[in-house]
Amino acid sequence: MVYAADDNIQTLLDFQYRQHFEADSGTHGSSNHKKGRYGKGLVIKVPPGTIIKDAHTGLVLRELIKGGDSVVIARGGFGGRGNSKNHPATGGMPGEEKKVILELKLIADVGIVGYPNAGKSTLISKISSARPKIADYPFTTKVPVLGVVKIHGDERLVFAEVPGLIEGAHLGRGLGDRFLRHVERTKTLIHLIDISGFEGRDPYKDYVSLNKELSLYSKELMKKPHVIALNKCDIESAKENVKRFKKHIRGKPVFVMSAATGEGIK
Ligand SMILES: Nc1nc2c(ncn2[C@@H]2O[C@H](COP(=O)(O)OP(=O)(O)O)[C@@H](O)[C@H]2O)c(=O)[nH]1
Ligand SMILES: [Mg+2]
User: Fold this and answer.
1) 166 touches ligand 1 (CB under 6 Å)
2) Which of 58, 87, 156, 201 is the most exposed place for a label (fewest CB within 10 A)?
3) CA distances (Å), 95 to each of 2, 24, 25, 41, 136, in order?
């Protein structure tokens, strides 16, 4: 049994409905010690970025990164042989059986992370043809949204909005844990901060706890290059907050932008 990454497949949803796969069995041997025909091998198609783990040990058997990558997970058995004058019939060997866990990590160039309502969906819909739901209540976006962004000429970057990061996300609170896994497979991150200070929020505190959250989840995440983008600069209170934020952050580059008006997006 072979697992193969296929560019035409984007999700593991199909496996919710079907979880057992069995290759064709070979045919029986026949008289004169003839071999039976081998069963046809089974190829299970999965999206690129799928990790295959042994269900019993939890060990990663293989990561299928790009389309065309494949791995043999269970080998087929051997057919038996039929009897003849000199040989008794011999039995075949059954094929291997293996229980695996499939896990999909998205692969994107840039992951947009931030608190609910920071404006992640608005930003990705402004720069790509992705059309996630946008609303002024948190957790509108429940699955990671991918958007392809034209940079210049033929150059393209894939952005991913990774929803629902809140304090305690690394413990699995809210939807955070599930989605943090996707961030691991991005090359860089945009930390998107709501700079309006709406409802008495402190944007710098948001930034600090966002970082804390990421580092508690995985130290590797902290090594990823990231840029800071302060969103909603069109709102009156933003100016003062930007000043304060820059004072705290000292030295690090900070982009000031408005996903709503388009200011600073480039
Ligand atoms: N004034 C203003 N509102 C924004 C801006 N970006 C997003 N919003 C609003 O903030 C709310 C949350 O936006 P959304 O993109 O869904 O945030 P997400 O939860 O981070 O994906 C929506 O009501 C947006 O219209 C911005 O630059 N300026
Ligand atoms: Mg969203």
Assistant:
1) no
2) 58
3) 13, 10, 9, 11, 54
pTM above 0.70, yes or no: no
Give, as residue ranges, everything with CB less than 5 Å from ion ligand 2. Answer: 120-121, 140-141
Architecture of domain 1-104: Distorted Sandwich (2.70)
CATH fold of 108-256 reads: Rossmann fold (3.40.50)
